[in-house]
Specification:
alpha+beta, six-stranded mixed beta sheet, two-stranded antiparallel sheet, about 20% strand
Length: about 220
Amino acid sequence: MTLLAGGLALASSLLLHVTIAGAGSAGTIYPEPGTYELHKIQKAPTGWVLENSVWRPHRLSSYMSGKITLFSFFYTNCTDLNGCPVAWLAYQNVQEEIRKDPTLHGRVRLVFLTLDPDVDTPERLEMFARSFGDAPKVAPWHFLTTWSNSFLKPIIADANQTASREVDKDGKVTDVINHMIKVYLVDENQWVREIYTTAFLDPQVMLNDIRTLVIESDLEKKRTN
């Protein structure tokens, strides 16, 4: 089994757990969307990224504005039970709920940026994305990479994310990248409004916060028009 296939198998095994966790909390213990405020925490990270081609760089800010964005770091070789698979399965749950709610169609995007640009090339990420099936236009996926670690490091620093290669007992660098899972909720104006970690990565909370930002945005547009 390849590492990529192994990661996908792990993802499948976690899907039921994450789905149940989200369903169990729905509508019971969390405040209703729009009844609370999400404060501005920090500006979203900036830099140059790649999607689908090494020849067409994009500004990361183009994936952080105009829509509400869930943004996180990951890498395709991650097989940590409490790592990247938990984040992308939470994304899948959020995406599925958005698909059911027309009021959220076209208002949200889901973005991952790899921590391993040497391995996760645009071609590999394109294949990885296809393994999840066709991304619905109502809430599209974006799997991003960079030309190299030198382009990645400033983005990581901007996000206040830490990441480091694990070293084995012989001092040899391994494929494992240690990092805390963080999912950043970014508003339409590139402000981070919430940061979720694996300790509180509940799709229902994320959806409530997304709906809160949608309500806020719609009220602001009515006020200014």
